[in-house]
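My current task is to audit a protein record that another person submitted. Alongside the sequence sits a line of tokens, each denoting a local backbone shape. Please read both lines and tell me whether the tokens look consistent with the sequence. Do not assume that whoever made the record got everything right. Thanks in advance; the entry in question is below.
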Amino acid sequence: MATPKILIADDNPSVLKLMQIILKKQGYSIITAENGEQAFELANKEKPDLIISDMMMPQMDGLELCWMIRENSEIPTVPFIFLTSFKDEETEIKGFRAGADQFLNKPIERKELLRSVEALLSRHDRLVAASGADAISGELKDLSIVEVVQMMNLNKKSGILHIHGNIEGEIYLKDGQIHAAECGADKGEQAIYTLVEKATGKFNFEIADVNVDRNVNMSTMNVIMEACRIMDEKNLEDES
């Protein structure tokens, strides 16, 4: 198996050095960039397996870099982590809208960094392994509903995500955007939240044209963020 390659972009040499030391000790191959423009060039050239970027950088900031990776690069689905010195909801919304997978606060905590890197690399590997030309299927214990929706969103796929298990439901996407959903009596956003919170079993994403009436009015990113919050609360309950 090839050594995972990680691109780190930060205009602070001390941060670059620290993360390089931490990640190299874990066996990762590291590429560094001092600004967004350099990072974007290296991303297309080196095709890293994961990108870690500061939000505030000269020439091209992290938000623009993430957007460029998602929209104009050869690796649009690469996992992307933002580093930030401040935490607020507006900043996170901007980051997720640009296509970020996760935020980490500075100063960087070694265990949190390694846990996040390992989890995102593993998730991406599972998604790639599950992908196919006409359908994607698997177990919800291996890939969550949120992860599958995020992957379809990044790939701008149209189709129906069928959930089969303790409860049944469908999520409809058009060009990667959530269009409609249903789960028993629940419709729209509430159907998605019910599925994320309660569903166990299997999923199947069917590539298809979607011709149902729209009943999800929130933006796809806001729905994903709320679903992530619900999933995090569920995970905390399971651990307690």
User: Anything to note?
Assistant: The chain has two domains: 5-128, 133-239. The chain has a mean pLDDT of 88. The chain has eight helices and eleven strands.
